[in-house]
Structures are given as structure tokens and as C-alpha cells.
Design a protein that fits this description.
- The structure is a single chain.
- The chain is α/β, with parallel strands linked by helices.
- It has a domain at about 10-35 and about 100-205: Rossmann fold (3-Layer(aba) Sandwich).
- About 45% of the residues lie in helices and about 20% in strands.
- A 5-stranded parallel sheet has the order 2-7-1-8-9, with helices on both faces.
């Protein structure tokens, strides 16, 4: 019997919505799910670990990887670039593991074009006010940076309608449970029901912009 091939799940959201935390907790809940570690040109934050949270590379090295065709997708966000390794993803999928790709919305569109097996999940903040509070609570960005991220988020929220599923992260535990249900449901062949339960239009109606 041939081994089941894994499913790539793209998880995208405006900055500060909590997508990294959600993805990490889904991986903790389900041993058949792996987390895709992206490359980035941005500086490492104090609590982050190289090759665990991101592969932190110089802009020059990132350019080399782009020229080599190493990325399934890459995008520039907030003046920094992010990319997903094509080979690393394929290796995990071949092992039968589902993979969570925590990537930017531009990158999600590239994955949609290049991989018909990908499932796209959008995480929405409950409101822009709550999103601003989360960004301030991180204490990692300047006032100018926070306002820039909020301006970008206003436009990004509307991209949820182009995703397969959308979940509002107004309660972390419930959001993690919902994303876990999406992953396990797609694995088990229940995608039609999931698309109804987590329809992007329904989720957008809950968000106060």
C-alpha cells in the first residue's frame, strides 16, 4: 500500500492576528502535522530562534535562493521578504505529514496558483481595535511601524474571501481547535462540511473593521 501524501495548509493573516501561535499549538495537538519554517530577511526578535522560528538570512542570500528556484513562494511584506522552501515542503508531504505554511497573503496567492492540493485558511482579528492592542502588547514595534501594519491589515482583511476557510481569532483556544478541525477534517474527507462551517463570508460578518 502506498503511503498517504500529506496536505499543505496555508495559514495567512494580518500581522498581529496570532497565526504563529495558532500554528504552533495545532502542531502540538496533532502529531501528523508539521510546521513549515520560512526564510526571512527581517531581523531576529529577542525570543526567536534561528532555524526554529525562521531561517534568518541576508538579503543577498535571499536573492540567491530566489535565483536558484528554491522557493515555492516568496513575498515582500512590510519591507522584508519571506519565502517557503520547495524541497523542505515536498519532503514532509512525501512522509505523509500535513504541513502548516504560515505565510503572507501575497505568498498564499502564489501557492494557490502552483499547488492544487493546497488548502488556504485565513485568520481574522475580531476587530482592528483588538489588532492594534495586540500589536502594542508585543512591544516590538514603533508607533510608526504599528500604524503601517494596521494600514496594511485594513486591505488584507478583504482577501479572506479568496480563501477556502476563515476563522476569527477572538479566543485563542477556540481558534486553535477550529484550525485543528479543518486540518483533520480535510485529512478525513469532510471538506464540504468544513467549507460551510468556516465559510469566509460568514467569518467576515463577525469582524468589526
Amino acid at each position: 500500500m502506498s503511503r498517504r501524501r500529506g496536505i499543505p495548509f496555508v495559514v495567512a493573516a494580518p500581522s498581529g492576528t496570532g497565526k504563529t501561535t495558532v500554528c504552533r499549538r495545532v502542531v502540538e495537538r496533532d502529531p501528523r502535522v508539521e510546521f513549515s519554517v520560512s526564510h526571512t530577511t527581517r531581523a531576529r526578535r529577542s525570543a526567536e530562534r534561528d532555524e526554529v522560528d525562521y531561517f534568518f538570512v541576508s538579503p543577498g542570500r535571499f536573492d540567491e535562493l530566489v535565483e536558484e528556484g528554491a522557493f515555492l513562494e516568496w513575498a515582500e511584506y512590510n519591507r522584508h521578504r519571506y519565502g517557503t522552501s520547495r524541497d523542505a515542503l515536498d519532503a514532509e508531504l512525501a512522509r505523509g505529514n500535513d504541513v502548516l505554511l504560515e505565510i503572507e497573503i501575497q505568498g498564499a496567492a502564489q501557492v494557490r496558483e502552483r499547488r492544487s492540493d493546497a488548502r488556504l485558511v485565513f485568520l481574522l482579528p475580531p476587530s482592528l481595535e483588538r489588532l492594534e492592542a495586540r500589536l502594542r502588547g508585543r512591544e516590538t514595534d514603533s508607533q510608526e511601524e504599528i500604524q503601517r501594519r494596521l494600514a496594511v491589515a485594513r486591505g488584507e482583511i478583504h482577501a479572506a474571501s479568496r480563501f477556502d476557510f476563515a476563522v476569527v481569532n477572538d479566543d485563542l483556544d477556540r481558534c486553535v481547535a477550529d484550525v485543528t478541525d479543518i486540518v483533520r477534517g480535510c485529512r478525513g474527507g469532510c471538506e464540504v462540511q468544513l467549507r460551510e462551517r468556516f465559510a469566509p463570508g460568514t467569518a467576515l460578518e463577525r469582524v468589526s473593521a
